[in-house]
Write a structure and sequence with these properties.
With about 475 residues, this protein is of the alpha/beta class. The chain folds into 3 domains: about 5-40 and about 100-145 and about 270-330, FAD/NAD(P)-binding domain; about 155-265, FAD/NAD(P)-binding domain (3-Layer(bba) Sandwich); about 340-460, FAD/NAD-linked reductase, C-terminal dimerisation domain (Enolase-like, domain 1, 2-Layer Sandwich), CATH 3.30.390. It is built from 15 helices and 24 strands. Strands 1, 2, 3, 4, 5, 6 and 19 form a 7-stranded mixed sheet that branches. A 5-stranded parallel sheet has the order 8-15-9-10-11, covered by helices on one side. The protein has a 5-stranded antiparallel sheet with strand order 20-21-24-23-22, with helices on both faces. Strand 12 and strand 13 form a beta hairpin. Helix 1 packs parallel to helix 8 (about 315-330), helix 3 crosses helix 4 (about 80-95) and helix 3 packs parallel to helix 6 (about 180-195). It is globular, with a radius of gyration of 26 Å. The structure holds flavin-adenine dinucleotide (FAD) and nicotinamide-adenine-dinucleotide (NAD). Flavin-adenine dinucleotide binds near residues 40, 43 and 140. InterPro entries: FAD/NAD-bd_sf, FAD/NAD-binding_dom, FAD/NAD-linked_Rdtase_dimer_sf, Pyr_nuc-diS_OxRdtase, Pyr_nucl-diS_OxRdtase_dimer, Pyr_OxRdtase_I_AS. Belongs to the class-I pyridine nucleotide-disulfide oxidoreductase family. Keywords: Disulfide bond, FAD, Flavoprotein, NADP, Oxidoreductase, Redox-active center.
């Protein structure tokens, strides 16, 4: 069969696929982008992930703030309309869909084919019984929500992020399985709209990737909003359309009210459709074997986005694509490096984390100091009432001159933390010292000033009595 030829074929049009396809198109290459259906263009982020979840969270936060304004005398009444909120979510998606749809992308110059792709050789694929070949192929097929079988599940409505944004009415008692970012973000949003939310995780803490200093403080905040947590626990069975049994790791059983269950239990990779063997692409368990250039065991096939099986974020896909683009177009090859990676969990307050965690610093035997603070010393936090925010920084441990220490990692728990921490992310990747943060004048009163307060407190610790004595001497006897 005749094969149509391309410079690059990209399988999957989510954050991974779209980014690399558009990047290569920009350089004048002939690029074929494939997805299963036109509704799937934009992938998880646009259709069932970041965009609907952040829009939904925004709606619920607006309602929460209106309710909180009652303390200032504002009378708020009326019933929350879930269909109106979901309509808002769809409207927000529609805005982004204007530039993430097949017609638009074709006009931009991409070749788009809708259908399920599978490899038929090391450099060619088949879609809808037609064959296509390229110098390089990128697999950007994403991941899917992990689902578990629950005894009695047919008695109740069970959701994942793929269908929860279709809900027409609010479940009264909503159980969220998993305490990762998916359940924590959406659980808080549903709770604020009026569901009684219980979050269940088999591990002992929420947001396992976060330091307990941060995750415990967030859990406390969420509990103050009446969200229940059952940790070290799993769902055992659905008893009826309104009751579930939860079992703790100690074997204790507890019946709790439940009208609906949401599964935020992590992600699964599935490459069955792709017929990887035909291209000589090896797997290791459920993951594709990759080197640090995101190259498979077939040197002309690469992976981007969730399918790479490392960090599962839209901006991780962007990072993959920047690496692939560099390695396709430049003789100086780059390798994947997560040492300055960052992410934000969009709860209220937000959690923003970057660089190395304490566990990683220990593992890598990097000498470090741990600096912790709340936001009590921030006047911005006082005026906006979030003094219980937290900041955690890891800085290099220096024998002499701690001011020359660089920022190794850290987290912020505060409203807008995802914006506040951006300069720390830059400090971390650009090797900026804490003295440089200390020297910066922050407009008053900004929350980012906490960076300076934390490092100033640390630098002041090095100020010995004899140093103060010398300074006093200068004041008394020095030239004016
Ligand atoms: C509820 C939720 C909220 C999230 N919020 C955030 C957030 O705020 N920030 C963030 O950075 N990340 C967030 N994420 C993660 C983010 O959505 C994903 O990391 C990202 O969308 C992955 O992009 P991808 O391109 O790898 O995969 P996908 O977006 O899943 O795209 C893969 C595409 O490949 C197609 N495909 C699969 N197999 C084939 C085949 N054989 N042939 C043709 N096409 C195929 C699929 O149809 C799909 O469209 C969130 C995730 C969830 C679930
Ligand atoms: N703001 C963001 O950037 C954002 C938001 C949502 C999701 N994401 C991405 O999506 C990915 C998936 O998120 P997630 O929350 O689904 O997964 P996750 O892997 O982060 O969390 C899943 C949780 O489920 C628990 N769990 C697993 N099986 C269980 C069981 N049978 N019973 C009880 N608990 C169980 C695990 O202990 C874990 O804590 C994240 O890793 C993240 O990369 C990002």
């Amino acid at each position: 069969m005749k094969e149509k030829k391309y410079d690059l074929i990209v399988i999957g049009s989510g954050s991974g696929g779209l980014g690399i396809a558009m990047g290569m198109l920009e350089f004048g290459f002939k690029v074929l982008l494939i997805d299963k259906t036109s509704e799937k263009i934009g992938g998880e982020c646009l259709n069932t992930g970041c965009v609907p979840s952040k829009s939904f969270i925004n709606a619920s936060k607006t309602i929460h703030q209106a309710q909180k304004a009652q303390e200032f005398g504002l009378e708020v009444n009326g019933k929350i309309s879930l269909p109106k909120i979901m309509e808002y979510v769809r409207q927000r998606q529609k805005v982004i869909r204007q530039h993430e749809n097949a017609d638009y992308l074709r006009k931009k110059g991409l070749h788009i084919i809708l259908g399920t792709a599978k490899f038929i050789s090391r450099s060619s694929i088949e879609i809808n019984e037609k064959n296509y070949r390229a110098k390089n192929i990128v697999i950007a097929t994403g991941s899917s929500p992990r689902k578990i079988n629950i005894k009695g599940a047919d008695l109740i409505s069970c959701y994942t992020n793929e269908d929860v944004f279709q809900l027409a009415s609010l479940p009264a008692n909503f159980i969220f399985l998993g305490a990762g970012p998916v359940s924590i973000e959406l659980g808080q949003a549903f709770s604020r709209l009026g569901s009684r939310v219980t979050i269940i995780d088999r591990s002992s803490s929420i947001l396992k990737k976060e330091d307990p200093f941060i995750s415990n403080a967030l859990q406390k905040k969420l509990e103050q909003e009446n969200i229940d947590f059952l940790l070290n626990a799993e769902i055992e069975e659905i008893l009826s359309s309104s009751e579930a049994v939860i079992k703790t790791s100690g074997g204790e059983k507890k019946e709790i009210p439940a009208d609906a269950v949401f599964m935020g239990l992590g992600r699964e990779l599935d490459f069955d459709d792709l017929n990887l063997e035909a291209a000589g692409i090896e797997t290791d368990g459920n993951k594709i074997k990759l080197n640090r250039k995101l190259q498979t065991t077939n040197k002309n096939v690469f992976v981007s986005g969730d399918a790479a099986g490392n960090m599962k974020f839209s901006h991780a896909a962007e990072m993959h694509n920047m690496l692939l683009l560099n390695n396709f177009l430049s003789p100086v090859k780059k390798k994947l490096d997560f040492s300055h990676f960052s992410w934000v969990t969009f709860t209220d307050p937000e959690v923003a984390t970057f660089g190395w965690s304490e566990e990683q610093l220990k593992e890598k035997e990097i000498p470090y100091e741990r600096l912790e603070n709340d936001f009590r010393e921030s006047d911005r936090a006082v005026t906006a009432n979030f003094q219980d925010g937290k900041i955690l920084l890891f800085i290099e441990k220096k024998k002499f001159n701690s001011a020359s220490a660089k920022v190794l990692g850290g987290s912020i728990l505060a409203p807008g933390a995802g914006e506040i921490f951006q300069e720390l992310v830059l400090a971390n990747s650009a090797g900026i010292t804490i003295k440089q943060l200390m020297d910066k004048i922050y407009p008053y009163p900004t929350a980012a000033n906490m960076h300076k307060i934390v490092v100033r407190n640390r630098i002041l610790k090095d100020l010995k009595p004899w140093m103060k004595k010398i300074a006093r001497g200068f004041y008394k006897f020095g030239k004016r």
